[in-house]
Amino acid sequence: MSNDLINVISKNNPFQGRLVVRDQNVWGQGFPDVPSLNSHASDAVYDAIEKVRSGQRKVVGITITAERGLGKSHVISRIRHQLQVDGSALFVYMSQCNDLNRITVEFLNTLANSLKQIGSQGVSQWQYLATVLINEAFNKNYTPQQLINQFPGALVKNPKVVEVLRDKVLGIKRDLENPDIITAILWTLSPDPAYEVFAIRWLAGKSLPQVKADAMGLANVSADDKEAESFTTARQILNLIGDYKPIVVCFDEMEILGCNDAGFTGSQVTALLVKDLYDKIKQGILLTSIYPETWTHQVKKMPYAEAVVDRMGEQLIDLKHLNSDDVVALVSRWLEEFYQENGLIPPHPVYPFDEAKLRELGKEKPIVRKVLKWCADNFKVPGDPGDNIDIHAVEPGYNQQISALETTIQDYMEDKATLAQALRLGFSAVVGETIENVQIEKVVDVQVRAADRGYLDFKIVGKENGKDVKIAVAVLQESGGLFVQATLRRLIDYKKFDLTRGCLVRSKQINKGAAKAQKYLSELLSTELGGEWVLLKPEDIKPLLALHFVMKGRENDELSEDQIIDFIRKKRIAIDNYLIREILSDPSGQVPEDAIDEENESGNITLTEVADVVNVGSDDLFQE
């Protein structure tokens, strides 16, 4: 046996911290897959795609039921990666909802962010959709990359080129209710990140800075209309896609804690959304994964359950436990990838494990997660007692989340609920500590009436120099509009919400033309109120986001809340975090100098850039 093999095994464990398929494994690099495992489930989805593509079916509802750890998300990841290879369908993936009362708003956001993922042609699914719309309207056969390359030059030659293209597309999409949807989709072809980011943000139902909205020809939706508009917008987008290709919309493990105001659980709210989509979209595959007990005791016990079950559970698929051959195949595949990555050839496919022991494990009919956990615990050179390095149980999962956020953190920088939950977890982990002269006693909800809900995220209660301190924290990432004004108005109402200080957490400037918002901001930062604006930066929130995702997935990772809090304390992740300390420190009363100026952020392509990018032949779409 080579020293290289021994050295690699002693320093690397390919199973550690990889027990659970997370969002980034669905969209990015997946886990090693054995296609034969639960192939009946993935094959059912592929078959449904073909039936929809060939016109045999319009909509198909499939529900996968399996206990925790049996491999539901592994199957979903397999489906997504296969679709990325063969291009037979587009893919949408929803695995969380921060507000069960606004699931249509969150679904639209998920839809927009899913479609920005790379599809089968090396471009985003949005850019694929923009391309097929243009090709049909102009009777052409352009590739997405050709249009992306032509876009800068066309925009310089004619600043209204998107409007021209939109009108041409609307000629073949006369039943579309909101023409701005086409406008925003076309803007995703821009190689300028500012245009693309703002277009997707608008498609997600978010407000844009008014200057950007006007420049791109998009109308912002008012806060009051968002709930009603979100489903309508999502339906129109799905129907546009359905004109060209099937789409798989997947809801994975939506067993969210709590209920909405009507008393429905997360699974029930999701089931109602699936039913509504089934009834309203032109075509598609609605795929739901759920625990058997949730299906039996929640979904099937809902009011009008028959209508829901008949749609989302049109095909009900149970996953199977592993047998001995499955266990050997699974472990062999994981180790094959590990050794290939390290340029090594093992003595046998399951080395350093004993195949007989793996087969014995298979006799127990285990779940996938149990097998991977056994491998993680026993991965060492035979006869080696191990180096007994004391690794905290939380550390592998935390490191995996940190690594994933290197490429995905921008997806969360507009997500108020997730950012606020991450900050709140950080403060909860330092209760009892004294930071910046503030002794933290507890972290609580701000008591509000229904009309004030959703603006102030939480309150830190403690003592500073013997005096009571009650700091309300509001994460505010909306670009503009009435929501910014409404949040600031509440943040300065110390008496109503029982506060001694208001703290705004925000990464971007507040529109100087928003007179009321600027007035409230001045009051917040005044000496009289002593409020604070803490600048939100990705590098500061990243460790707290990683912890938040570990906490959310703790049951899957077989971790306890106490273990996670212990890890946070031992590693000083919260107590040394810039945001945590800055929120508690003496307010500066200043507007952060390096807050992002969205109104002047990029969005203007120079002629030099055009020369670098454009290679337009005589057959130039934008000349027509």
Question: How would you describe what is shown here?
Answer:
- The protein is of the alpha/beta class.
- Helix content is 47%, strand content 10%.
- It has 27 helices and eleven strands.
- It has helices at residues 3-11, 23-27, 39-53, 72-86, 103-115, 125-138, 144-157, 161-170, 180-187, 193-203, 210-216, 226-242, 266-280, 292-297, 305-312, 324-341, 355-362, 368-378, 395-408, 416-428, 482-491, 494-497, 515-525, 538-552, 561-570, 578-584, 607-613; strands at residues 59-65, 90-94, 247-252, 284-290, 315-318, 434-435, 438-444, 458-464, 467-475, 501-506, 532-535.
- The strands form two sheets. A six-stranded mixed sheet has the order 6-7-8-9-10-11, sandwiched between helices. The chain has a five-stranded parallel sheet with strand order 2-3-4-1-5, sandwiched between helices.
- Strand 10 (501-506), helix 23 and strand 11 (532-535) form a beta-alpha-beta unit.
- Helix 3 packs across helix 4, helix 7 (144-157) runs antiparallel to helix 27 (607-613) and helix 13 crosses helix 15 (305-312).
- The chain starts with a helix and ends in an 11-residue tail after the last helix.
